Amino acid sequence: MPIVVNLDVVMARRKMSSTELAEKMDITPANLSILKTGKAKAIRFSTLEAACEALDCQPGDILEYRPDPEKP
Amino acid sequence: MWNKKRSLSLSRVCVLVFIGATLAILVAGPWLVDWLAGTRAEAQAGIPGYSTTADPADRGLFFATLYTGGAVALYLLVQLYRLLNNIAAEKVFTDSNVTLLRRISWCCFLGALVSGLSVLYYMPWGLVAVAAAFMALVVRVIKNVMAEAVVIKQENDYTI
Fold it and tell me: What is the pLDDT of residues A28-41, one digit of tens each?
């Protein structure tokens, strides 16, 4: 998928565990895992807001666009 | 107070009743065939060239239609019961339910085909053929809707 979620990178910088982040974002660890592993098909603005608040970062730090190499 | 759980239970009971009725019809097949073949002979009474007694070949054809159709109907009812069980287990929008609906529609088409071919020896089977084909179409459309619902649900499940 062209949109890549870099939660792992930001979490490592802030030295925050998955459990702690899930708690701060008020989502289940399972849902956080879906986000981290790139299986999510969409993210709500409220979730993105919670992530940015918990990690003290910008949406662009978490989300990255990498175009599909096969697409023109 | 009527609720969804009781409605589901009623549906399952109805399917079980239909399964029982289908099995009863299959067991009583020989008597049913004698009656059907007899009515056909009566209908042809007075028509020059036609026998007024039940032709043994007719009995064979009626048996073929009844038991082929009965087997298809039983398989269809079992799929329907499995679908209701899945719904009761709160597994509604799943790929397995789409598969079950697909099988049900193909059973209806098969029933329509068997009945349609049986028109060659007994015209009233045509009514059964038309009804079965119509049901097949309705179930097929429901299957298409369910398949889209599964996609929407999966998208929703993976929206965090």
Answer: 999 999 999 989 99
Enumerate residue ranges in chain A where pLDDT < 50. Answer: none
Looking at this predicted complex, what is its ipTM?
0.82
Q: Which residues of B touch A32 (CB under 8 A)?
A: 160
Q: What amino acid is encoded at A13 in this protein?
A: R
B150 to chain A, minimum CA–CA distance in Å? Answer: 14
Q: Answer whether A27 touches B (CB < 8 Å).
A: yes
CA-to-CA dists, residue B113 to A1, B104, B131, B140, angstroms = 46, 14, 11, 16
Strand partners, A5: A63
DSSP state of A43: -
Model pTM score: 0.79
DSSP sequence for B44-103: HTTSTT--SS--HHHHHHHHHHHHHHHHHHHHHHHHHHHHHHHHHTT--S-HHHHHHHHH
Contact: A40, B160; criterion CB under 8 Å = yes
Q: A43 — contact with chain B (CB < 8 Å)?
A: yes
